[in-house]
Write a structure and sequence with these properties.
Blueprint lengths: L83
The structure holds calcium ion (3 copies).
One calcium ion binds next to loops.
């Protein structure tokens, strides 16, 4: 008998907000306060060191949001330990 099934309150468990889901993504916001919004080319609006106006530094991160990572670095030909 399933006649009472619909009368039972369905337990809905929503996952708590975590770092995985993050805050509600607001494309028009400048979350890291570096002066660049995602709509303006900020490819990591959670890191104020990463934006189109940043200088590329050798840290395995595309600091200036031009897709290329660590361009201009001399020692990035090999990403391994090289030894
Ligand atoms: Ca930003
Ligand atoms: Ca770059
Ligand atoms: Ca870099």
């Amino acid at each position: 008998m399933l006649g009472t099934a619909c009368a039972e309150p369905r337990e809905v468990v929503l996952p708590p907000p975590t770092a995985e889901t993050g805050p509600v993504w607001e494309p028009s916001a400048d979350l890291d306060g570096d002066g660049f919004k995602p709509s303006e080319g900020d490819c990591d609006d959670g890191d104020s060191d990463v934006n189109p106006g940043a200088a590329e530094v050798c840290d395995d991160v595309d600091n200036d949001c031009d897709v290329e990572v660590d361009e201009g670095c001399d020692d990035t030909a090999e990403t391994g330990d090289g030894a």
